[in-house]
């Protein structure tokens, strides 16, 4: 072989090896491809998804389950709490539109580089996605690995995938947002009632009752009438208790095991009444909500009640003082004592404390 041809072949081999490391190891011979590039990973899946009743995502041996019950999709380990409909739709649509681009490694020793190894080991980086029908029969199963990073703009997303039980892995084109963390599936919004609408608040905690009302555009403590000076910012936090309120976790109301520490009844200027029951479990604060209303507030109350009924929500620990504060929680801070002003001719403070030298 001529030296020139040898150099050309060496350069081509080096370029191919570099491309394998950059874009994913390709060890599956092209002649063994069973799927043509551009083919759907799951042909005809859209029609089959009509029978889907359960979605499982396994990561590092832990499985998150989203199940359909009475036509609604919810998290199984949260008592069926509803998941984000848009997020679920994006996942299933992405599964139907996922297309094979090219084959990648079939060597199990190289799976971890693409994130398509078995999803059971605690060190695994992959996600096993399974969609099942009402009989528990798989409609679609796929090990989902790393996303392929693309620096160009307006380029479709790509991801490495492998079918369970098959040696070959693939680079597939499409967006497939697989999340195994239930926290990423919550619709976190509970309520959003502007503080300016709050007319009165009645807080009961133990034997104490605090009643708040409007004084112009400010919320003030009406009862007890005799009380120490209060912090205006802390009073404002009480009025904002239902404003942009979100959850950090959730469980069915029947599973609430914390200690009840108080209730708050918040009434708006147009008649919406929201009752908040607050529980404390160790350091966590949980709350249950109930809404009623008449006339103009009736429709809003019914919508809110339908969303919150039957659930206990974990909220930020600071919400304890916003929903069920004590009088001490509302007290204004005492001003720091002023330092004594030294008189002319007096020794410095440090020297005054020293004993006189004989």
TrEMBL record:
Keywords from the named record: Signal
Domain DUF4340 stretches: 73-252
Region of interest called Disordered, as start-end residue ranges on this chain: 329-358
Signal peptide: 1-18
One Pfam family cited in the UniProt record for this chain: DUF4340
Recorded superkingdom: Bacteria
Protein name per Swiss-Prot or TrEMBL: DUF4340 domain-containing protein
Phylogenetic lineage: Bacteria, Pseudomonadati, Pseudomonadota, Alphaproteobacteria, Acetobacterales
């Amino acid at each position: 072989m001529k030296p020139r041809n040898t150099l050309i072949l060496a350069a081509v081999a080096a370029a191919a090896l570099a491309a394998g490391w950059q874009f994913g190891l390709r060890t599956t011979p092209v002649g063994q491809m069973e799927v043509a590039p551009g083919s759907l990973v799951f042909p005809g899946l859209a029609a089959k998804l009509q029978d889907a009743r359960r979605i499982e995502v396994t990561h590092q041996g832990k499985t998150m389950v989203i199940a359909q019950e009475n036509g609604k999709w919810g998290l199984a380990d949260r008592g069926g709490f509803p998941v984000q409909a848009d997020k679920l739709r994006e996942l299933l649509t992405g599964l139907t539109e996922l297309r094979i681009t090219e084959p990648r490694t079939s060597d199990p020793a190289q799976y971890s580089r693409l994130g398509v190894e078995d999803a059971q080991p605690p060190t695994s980086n992959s996600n096993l996605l399974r969609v099942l029908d009402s009989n528990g029969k798989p409609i679609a199963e796929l090990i989902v690995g790393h996303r392929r990073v693309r620096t160009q703009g307006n380029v479709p997303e790509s991801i490495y995938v492998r079918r369970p039980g098959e040696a070959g892995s693939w680079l597939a084109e499409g967006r497939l947002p697989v999340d195994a963390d239930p926290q990423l599936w919550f619709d976190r919004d509970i309520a959003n009632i502007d503080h300016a609408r709050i007319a009165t608040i009645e807080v009961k905690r133990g034997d104490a009752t605090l009643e708040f009302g409007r004084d112009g555009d400010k919320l003030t403590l009406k009862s007890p009438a005799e009380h120490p000076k209060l912090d205006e910012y802390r009073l404002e936090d009480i009025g904002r208790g239902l404003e942009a309120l979100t959850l950090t976790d959730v469980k069915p109301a029947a599973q609430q095991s914390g200690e009840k520490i108080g209730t708050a009844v918040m009434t708006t200027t147009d008649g919406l009444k929201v009752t908040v029951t607050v529980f404390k479990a160790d350091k966590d604060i949980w709350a249950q909500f109930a809404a009623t209303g008449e006339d103009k507030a009736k429709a809003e109350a019914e919508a809110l009640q339908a969303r919150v009924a039957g659930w206990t929500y974990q909220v930020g620990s600071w919400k304890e003082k916003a929903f069920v504060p004590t009088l001490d929680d509302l007290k204004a801070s005492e001003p720091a004592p002023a330092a004594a002003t030294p008189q002319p001719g007096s020794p410095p403070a440090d020297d005054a404390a020293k004993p006189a030298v004989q």
